Amino acid sequence: MDYAYCRCGNHFGGLAALVILLKGNGQRLGDMAAGTTVISLKRKVTLSDTILRDIDPGYLPMYSQVTLFNDTEMQTIKTVYEDANRKGNHNVILSLNKRVSDVMQVDPKQTPIEFLNTVIKDYNYYTQQM
User: In sequence order, what are the residues at sequence separation of 6 or more whose Cβ sits closer than 8 angstroms to the Cβ of residue 123?
Assistant: First the structure.
């Protein structure tokens, strides 16, 4: 009797695994029976979500002061800049430009967009050289 119970249990486990595989959304058999939904909290991260940017092999940085920032700060700068640029929010770009140039203690001769782009590239250059 115990043997039959164990054997039967294995079939149910196999059935549950088959249902999970066939459904493709990670929902277990018990979840389906209870009417619950599986929610995944995993956020997919792409290269554009990181600080990293492609830099030409012959790139020459302009601002060594970018090394004053850490990865978290530079990620914030990049995210705020790209979001404001995408939405055409020039006031945010101007504010970010002022804050970044103040921290770096530089007086950029570039437009705010060009300056912020250069800062992000320079940071990538210096951190990739380490």
Answer: 51, 66, 67, 69, 74
